[in-house]
Amino acid sequence: MKHSNKRPAPTPKSRQSAARPTPATPAGAGFPLQKILVYGTLAVVLLLVFFVRFRLLSLPLERDEGEYALMGQLILKGIPPYEMAYNMKLPGTYYAYALIMLIFGQSPTGIHAGLLLVNLASIVLLFAVGKKLVNDTVGVLGAASFALLTLAPYSLGVAAHATHFNAVAALGGLLLLLNYFEQPTWKRLGASGLCFGLSFVMKQHAMFLVLFGLTVLALHEWKRHPRDLKRSATALATFGAGATLPYLFLILVSVLTGSFANFWHWTVEYAGQYATIKSWGEAWTTLNANFSIFSTGVVLFWIVGTAGLAAVFFSEAARKNSVTILLLALFSTLCVVPGLYFRSHYFIVLYPALGLLVGIALYFVQELLTKYKLGFLAVLPYAFFGYMFFSAVGRFREHFFKDSPERLCVRMFGTANPFPESLKIAEFLQANTTEADKIAVIGSEPQICFYSRRLPATGFIYMYPLMENQAFSQAMQKEMIAEVEQSKPKFLVYVNSPLSWLRKEHSSGEVFAWFNQYKMQYKLAGIVDITPKQKTRYVWREALAGYTEKGQTRISVYERE
Predict the structure, then answer these.
(1) Residue 343 to residues 120, 200, 288, 417, 467: CA-CA distances in angstroms?
(2) Deepest in the core among 163, 327, 338, 386, taking most CB within 10 A?
(3) What does DSSP assign to residue 195?
(4) What pTM was estimated for this model as a whole?
(5) CB burial class (10 A; 0-12, 13-18, 19+) of residue 218?
(6) Which of 168, 66, 78 is nearest to 126 (CA)?
(7) Residues 524, 227: Cα–Cα separation, whole Å
């Protein structure tokens, strides 16, 4: 059935749904000083984020960024995802990286310039969402909270993780949906679904954000008076069509490029195995351990945000849209659950909801003070927020304002992760190979292939699947071995670091036994020796004679005879 692009007839105001998010008017909204404070605060937050992220543009890529960058680089060469490099994530972030690198260049600086724009856009979008759901005060407090939480180094938000792209797309979708509730048009509704669908293809965890949008729309339609089932079905279908379009497009691309079999195996079959490796019995231990890390310096935001869950029911300003706000918090929380890994950067997609709850909790305190004729104390909740915010900034002053990008990388990831070292390894490889040569990184360091701009000799850019307790691990080891042997790479890069393997007690040792034999066809060309207290030592070729390794983490580079 063909639908008109004309605006549907609006529902009479007297019959509009109570569930529809309705902007609330903040106290003092007509007073210019209040607007100055709100938009002045937003400007200060944006400037702080810009300054810190701009200073850290050259931060070395960590391995997830290396994966996205390598995939994006291959796309720019005309090689589709899953053809020469494999991973279980949907390729939305790979294409986002390709676009960023097309604009800003194939380097950490270019990638982080793209992240800077994405993060600033997320902050502004969250402010607009908070303003519509509650008021501009809650909007700016939520945006400021989100900005700081994503900037805090131990949330790993300074790295361009897929969850940043999840968040910005979903916030765009939510803002469009709220606008649709106020001024319904089919184009706006379809665009909202499209944004939520883009969030999903950036990383599968965002499937819960798609369900959030669909649920909020369904509740809005259910409470419409009088009910129009045909119109409601059309609205849900329009949103659903927009949400599924990005995924269907990726399937079409994979079919046309001949990579569908790998696409399906990695993003569905293996992804399903990966999500069931951990047991619920391990979940609490994992969450507790990781929370103690990524909440460092920002615990007060989590405490106040939790209080905001209760404040939603009692705040006069927030109560009108309490269902939407609570659903956002619920479905955002579900986004961090799949696989039960609870890694720090997974929570970036939860921070918009947490930020809004922080704002609601503090605004509710102001409402109480005003209600009990203590309006002269209404500044206290905002003074407390200032204390929370600037205490965290002070806690991370070394990270934000003093540390070099390389030093910050070591602070966040430790010396067992060879992220700064990958740059110099890649320089050596690039100087001693041609574009026709392939390299095999035997470890989980895809950033080395990206930096060197050389094709990987195997699509297994991570060794983790080979070590996991899942149905495909043994077959994956055999496949990786066969790919390397067939490619006959010019160089082998062996990463001797437990964090590059995550080997388990049950892991098969076949790949290690194979490598010990296969490397005999190569000669040692370099050692990168990483010691906890001393500077990393790079020992190449002639200097290797008589050299004794001192570090527990080291990378060995082998050149084909």
Answers:
(1) 23, 18, 11, 16, 19
(2) 163
(3) H
(4) 0.92
(5) middle
(6) 168
(7) 75
